[in-house]
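Escalation from tier 1.

The customer reports that the assembly of two entities below gives different structure tokens on two consecutive runs. Tier 1 could not reproduce it. I'm attaching the input and our single run for tier 2 to review.
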Amino acid sequence: MEISELGEFGLIRHLTKDIKPENETTIQGIGDDCAVLQYAGDRRVLVTTDMLMEGVHFDLQYTPLRHLGYKSVIVNLSDIYAMNGTPRQVTVSLALGKRFTVEDVEELYAGMRYACEEHHVDLVGGDTTSSLTGLAISITAIGDARPEDVVLRSGAKPTDLVCVSGNLGAAYMGLQLLEREKSVFNAQVQSAKSKIQTPDPQDTDIPFQPDFAGREYLLQRQLRPEARRDIVESLRQAGIRPTAMMDISDGLSSELLHICTQSHTGCRIYEERLPLDYQTAAMAEELNLNVSTCALNGGEDYELLFTVPLTDNERVTQLPDVHVIGYITEESLGPVLITRDGQEFTLKAQGWNPLAKEGSGE
Amino acid sequence: MEISELGEFGLIRHLTKDIKPENETTIQGIGDDCAVLQYAGDRRVLVTTDMLMEGVHFDLQYTPLRHLGYKSVIVNLSDIYAMNGTPRQVTVSLALGKRFTVEDVEELYAGMRYACEEHHVDLVGGDTTSSLTGLAISITAIGDARPEDVVLRSGAKPTDLVCVSGNLGAAYMGLQLLEREKSVFNAQVQSAKSKIQTPDPQDTDIPFQPDFAGREYLLQRQLRPEARRDIVESLRQAGIRPTAMMDISDGLSSELLHICTQSHTGCRIYEERLPLDYQTAAMAEELNLNVSTCALNGGEDYELLFTVPLTDNERVTQLPDVHVIGYITEESLGPVLITRDGQEFTLKAQGWNPLAKEGSGE
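Tier 1 run:
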């Protein structure tokens, strides 16, 4: 059977459906942002891991190694925050292609260490090896939380408010912009090469000087995303404990469906409430894309999606950079999007799925 | 600077030399088989991670996916045992090439799960994504130990006995055997193709039927290594606490140098005491290799190397499958190998180093 028939989540479900934890230290295994472990009565240990492959998750033609290092740590810390925890340690495994120099790895590490320092996280180990082809990065983050603070994906209840932090779709727009500038540049190189008839494709001295004026925010969201520790902290300070939470890596729709499935609920989300940045909207118009589709399915925003009891309505709406976009319903009502003109659609996850066939997704 | 100038350990030292843990939960970071974390007063959490890349660490032409899955978990559990700990959880990240089917991944997972079951370890999470090229496997293992039980590489003292479990060099011989049979097979295919003039290299129906008769043990050591939980348990039962311990993944010489460097000692190791299996010796003779060199530098044995106080001499020599191969000395005496004919050589690590130039190693 082709893996693309199942997709990433289908494959994982298929492979792990009958895995039952047998250790008393395993509180929760596969199926959330982190595994939850208990090595002491008064603390839960949270573990998460992410793998980034060159050519699949990043393109070194336009991704500075320092940014890549930073992002590769941040996406893991984001998973710890999404459990309402505090990250403490990371391990870093790298497989390096032959073209990498020591200076390259220093750049990569500098970004990783900067992310660690910003979040007071220790880099405690890893593995460094070679790769026959591209760069592979695998990072595991470990954190902790008090048992009563851990927030799973499965705790949403009907009438809970659905909230997101920040704004959505900008990282995806940043990627579109980078890909477009890359195409333009490669075409220029191609054209120059055919004129000067150099045999070596590296022999043109055209610099890669893409036009990003006024689009810096989109680039920053793609190349240098943030993990929303501030949101977790302001929820705590406001005395709000989310009933369910996860970070938005594959796109809002995909993540909403995870929460609905695991909480056995439906939801009603309002298109007009999706938080958008001006640059995202402008770029969508320029590229002739529907900006709501980008916000729903774009991915890589690393914002937090969470649900809070209706009784927290007043407090949550006062938090900076938090937006209520809808509410949780009974499971039988399904996951629904209400468009600006009042139409109802069933939410579908069309987020980025590396194992899906072109255009399918899950 | 070329990475090969530094090698794996040099690169890691270079990148991490000024990393200072700042979390109170981080007891020990980079530099041992595992990081040691403290999330409770009465337990240490141990974390280790390993990355395996197709074409660098394994060759799918002769490595069954089930064995590969098994081995990829085992090499991580081995690191937990090497800290005198008990493994509890693993996370598994996979990047799959396009040619992989669901059945392939099932085979890989079956091996991983078998290793987990054997060692009562829970598979609690991971990441599954795609790769433009080969298979990449990154596994993190988590375990625990009582604080007083954790054994680092740095605790060896002069007069301590140096011990190894099992026997050495067999996994390396297994690899040589597999590589030889692969060459023979590929030559047969090449020759058949030229005779029948098929345009497709896959079009010969020659089965890969290598001649392994009488060499099964070497293959098993390469394809299906064991993590020596039994040794850790028998040491515990005998009331012996090693002063230093690590597992032998890169070769005995390389690991001995780690212990000597981190414990600030020298050592004297006796060639005649290196434990060898009969098949290892026979294969070395057939391949015209020095069997002691293979035992010292072969790697991938996943046996335990440890030091115990001289006062434990009687008890340790009675343990099954444990061999005393020498003793620890003052640092000024250096790491020394005494050959069968009484000559003294300084031990050098010539073990497998994926980031070194051909033939250099560290």
